[in-house]
């Protein structure tokens, strides 16, 4: 289980790939901005305000700082092995098969659960648009899943607040169908969607900043720095708002197509993160200053987690009806409260149009991870079966889409984002360790991009990821070890015996993880496998 997949075999793909280096610092920065700005700022602003109040502005800064150091570590490995598989591939090359499996298993929490969170966020904006622009009142029990609480190790649902989120199911399955039949977004469509998102946020900032009231910032940190319970306060909000920055890896994975990556990759990474952090801060200042962002409190005067039964009960009270923290479409709600209903509806429309593209990228990313793991033999190779007509891995795409729809139907967006963050933070932590290990094991290997001050940056990244993970809500922290335990059982029962590497099947990865699998001859000097296999 500690066998390592040769980095030379992985790099052989990059050598054959022969990508043209055409991206400069401006293109990389814009690529990162487009990938980062999305669900987090549109959807999680209310949840962050419930945890930290106006102090959520510092939460954005803290989460962005941890992302910045993690991005620098991620970039070194992405430049060295610019192939499919993300952190799973890097860990396989440095730390061995078992830890690579655990990282790949954790990435399911990053991609699939994140797609569910986006689906729930999309639902909130669409239903708000229906109600405010069309006057249509969607049944309450069909616009949200139940409230969940932990009873020991068993999650307990409360169906009095909701049964199932129908719109979240619809958007998740619609995107899944598009991916199955091979419809992908073009660069031009993606550019238009980025422009829509940026324009909507710019309009929000322009309209809210002039009506800011200083009194709305007091008290600044009603739940303190750490809060009375796990996941609350400014630090807890930072752990949740980390979700708003995920996407920067689009910059690091483009390192092989970048002119002078040693200089331009860090410019693109830090530049895009800096721009997005400023954007997020301005949006947070506008939202807080315009209508206030004080948390609601439970019946006994206690701080309550967003999405919990106590939170839902507090938001049902008439005096809390207009509170920012109780809105499922926070930014549109703010604009309506300051008498810009038409612009609020337009912003809701922008979110409705732009967010499905994020769901598409998340589900697509998840299928790539599954595909690579199945191609390595760690999962049943039938999952990677390609449809004869659509030329897509339709089985794993359908499986992922159904799982995304179920999670989106039953869980609130804040809980889904926290669970997604637990998997993401674990994967980034492992990448930070892998960078340092590879510097020791193979110091002379060519690195198109080198993490600057690696013995400072990488430990900071690892410590930052561990710190944010520790400050996630208790339920979200518990999901990762339980999920990891399930994954470990699957690996010990199946993956450790079926692993291609363990069976002496050495293959060079395909150019693209979504390409149809085909037989690949063994590497020179490797034993010739006697059984038939497909790469």
Tell the overall outline: globular
- Give the termini distance in whole angstroms: 20 Å
Q: What is the residue-averaged pLDDT?
A: 81
Topology, number of strands? 2
Helical content band:
55-70%
- The largest sheet has its strands arranged as 1-2
Contiguous low-pLDDT stretches (5 residues minimum) are 508-535
**Rg (C-alpha, Å):** 23 Å
Beta-strand portion reads under 5%
Q: What characterizes the major β-sheet?
A: 2 strands, antiparallel
Structural class: mainly alpha
Topology as H/E string? HHHHHHHEEHHHHHHHHHHHH
Helix count, DSSP H or I runs of 4 or more residues: 19
Give structural notes.
- There is one protein chain.
- The protein is globular.
- A hairpin with a 2-residue loop joins strand 1 and strand 2.
- It is built from 19 helices and two strands.
- Residues 508-535 have low confidence and may be disordered.
- The longest helix is centred in the N-terminal third of the chain and has 37 residues, at 97-133.
- It has a two-stranded antiparallel ribbon with strand order 1-2.
- It is an all-alpha fold.
- It has helices spanning 7-17, 25-36, 39-43, 45-52, 56-80, 86-94, 97-133, 166-180, 187-208, 233-241, 249-252, 261-291, 309-315, 330-337, 341-375, 394-410, 413-441, 454-470, 474-498, and strands at 147-151, 154-158.
